[in-house]
Design brief:
Elements lengths: L19 E4 L1 H6 E11 L3 H8 L9 E5 L2 E5 L20 E4 L2 H11 L5 E10 L2 E11 L2 H26 L4
Antiparallel strand pairs: 1-6, 2-5, 2-7, 3-4, 4-5, 6-7
Main location: cytoplasm
Keywords: Cytoplasm, RNA-binding
Family: Belongs to the SmpB family.
Length: 170
C-alpha cells in the first residue's frame, strides 16, 4: 500500500498550503521586528471561502491581549461573493489560537508599553489559516532612513559584483 495524497480536481492555486493570502509590507518598514509567532485564526465558513478567493487585507490590522486571550482587530475580510444572509461582518475582531505559555510570553513582552503585536502575513498551512504575528517596536524617522540607506547600499554592491562577473565596466 502506498500513502499518496491526491489532489482535488478543479482546485485553484489560491487557498493551497503555503499560499500567502495577505501580507503587511509596511509593517517591516514602520517597525523593528523583535520576535515572531505563528497563530491560528478562529474564522467562520464564509470568511474561509472569501480568503480562498484571495481576498483579505492586513493594512490596519493589529493584535491585542484582552482577558488572557489574543484578538486580531482591523483585519478586513470582505463578504463572500456567493454568500447569503449568513455572511460575516468584514471587520470583526477575530480570536487568535495560541498556547497559554505563548500568550503569557506575548503579554510579558508587550506589558511595558514599548512593544506592540503586529500581523505580518496571513496564509494557509495544512488547510488552516495562520497569521504570522510579530512583537515589534516602532522605528524613529532616522531609523527608517538608515534602513533604506543600508538596503540601497547592499543592492548596489550586488549589482557591482554582477557587473564584474560579467565583465561589464561600471
Amino acid at each position: 500500500m502506498s500513502k499518496t495524497k491526491s489532489k482535488k480536481k478543479g482546485a485553484s492555486s489560491l487557498g493551497r498550503d503555503g499560499s500567502i493570502v495577505a501580507s503587511n509590507k509596511k509593517a517591516r518598514h514602520e517597525y523593528t521586528i523583535l520576535d515572531t509567532f505563528e497563530a491560528g485564526v478562529a474564522l467562520v465558513g464564509t470568511e474561509i471561502k472569501s480568503m480562498r478567493e484571495g481576498k483579505a487585507s492586513l493594512v490596519d490590522a493589529y493584535a491585542t491581549i484582552d482577558a488572557g486571550e489574543v484578538w486580531l482587530r482591523g483585519l478586513h475580510i470582505p463578504e463572500y461573493s456567493h454568500g447569503s444572509w449568513t455572511n460575516h461582518a468584514p471587520k470583526r475582531a477575530r480570536k487568535l489560537l495560541l498556547h497559554r505559555r505563548e500568550i503569557d510570553q506575548l503579554f510579558g513582552k508587550t506589558r511595558d508599553g514599548n512593544a506592540t503585536l503586529v500581523p505580518l502575513s496571513l496564509y494557509f498551512s495544512q488547510g488552516r489559516v495562520k497569521v504570522e504575528l510579530a512583537i515589534a517596536r516602532g522605528k524613529q524617522i532616522h531609523d527608517k532612513r538608515e534602513t533604506l540607506r543600508r538596503r540601497t547600499m547592499e543592492r548596489e554592491a550586488v549589482r557591482e559584483v554582477g557587473r564584474r562577473i560579467k565583465g561589464i565596466p561600471g
